[in-house]
Design a protein that fits this description.
With 280 residues, the protein is an all-alpha fold. It contains 15 helices and no strands. The chain has one domain: MetI-like fold (Orthogonal Bundle), CATH 1.10.3720.10. The chain is globular and about 70 Å long.
Length: 280
């Protein structure tokens, strides 16, 4: 019995290398974020000090930087525009991608497999390559310098990844619910709206945060489609001087919406990532 207890005490030593490796990886990922938070609480002199001063002397006093950042109208307008654009296009993308994914999962017809294979093939095409033909197309229809490129992309469900994830999720969805609704006389659109979507919260949450972050964290697309890209927060922060507490505070505020959204729906995201990989 004593020998068993001794073995149990030292069993954790076998997992020690794994824990150390994960700790190093986690610290490497988190360190830039921590350094941003610490730097945003420094004064101008502390940011430019040499040698580098790791900790601010008066961090609570420097919280006033966040107040002035929120009071500064250009960054607040850019944040508001980006927030509205990101939320609205994310919701539209969730619905249109769900429609396409549901069609690939349930409707079996001539050429459906080949069409889905084409969607999968588009996953390897970098999005930046598509910016030039998109610019030419939108310029032809006089849609440049507007938010129409984002909304048309959302209505067109142009992300193959989202369609693929929805399709995988719907393949594991029980068909008995749909068959029971069909017996009761429900139309396909009613089945999709009243049965499929309400029971697809994990997939919806996963696509929602991906679609929102693709707009919120993008600064290349506004440079292409807008004459004044600084209307959106990404280009505004990218074009601002780095060594400034004001800009660093704006960068911290830039992270908050995505972090808050993730914390609110993280359980559904984990389920969505799990279920979308189970079906072939």
């Amino acid at each position: 019995m004593n020998q068993t207890n001794r073995i149990a005490k030292f069993r954790w030593l076998k997992s020690l290398p794994v824990y150390l490796a994960l700790s190093v990886i986690g610290l490497t990922i988190v360190m830039p974020v921590l350094w941003l938070l610490i730097s945003s609480l420094k004064s101008d002199n502390e940011l430019s000090a040499y040698p580098i001063q790791f900790l601010p002397k008066h961090p609570l006093y420097q919280l006033i930087t966040y107040y002035f950042t929120l009071r500064y109208s250009p960054i607040m307008l850019a944040m508001l525009h980006t927030l509205v654009l990101g939320i609205s296009t994310a919701f539209i993308t969730c619905i249109t991608s769900a429609m396409a994914g549901y069609a690939f999962a349930r409707i079996k017809g001539a050429g459906s497999k080949q069409l889905f294979s084409l969607v999968i093939a588009l996953l390897i095409v970098p999005n930046i390559i598509l910016l030039v033909p998109q610019f030419i197309l939108y310029a032809h229809y006089h849609l440049i310098n507007s938010y129409w490129p984002w909304y048309l992309a959302a209505f067109g469900a142009t992300s193959p990844l989202y369609i693929f994830m929805y399709r995988q999720f719907f393949l594991g969805f029980p068909k008995e619910l749909e068959e029971a609704a069909e017996i009761d006389g429900a139309s396909p659109s009613r089945i999709f709206i009243e049965i499929i979507l309400p029971n697809s919260k994990p997939a919806l949450a996963t696509i929602l945060i991906f679609a929102f972050n693709s707009v919120w964290g993008d600064f290349i697309t506004p440079l292409i489609f807008l004459n004044n890209p600084f209307k959106l927060l990404g280009p505004w922060l990218a074009g601002a001087p780095v060594a400034s507490p004001f800009v660093l505070a704006g960068a911290v505020l830039y992270m908050l919406p995505v972090i808050v959204l993730f914390l609110l729906i993280q359980k559904n995201i984990q389920k969505g990532m799990l279920f979308t990989g189970l079906q072939g």
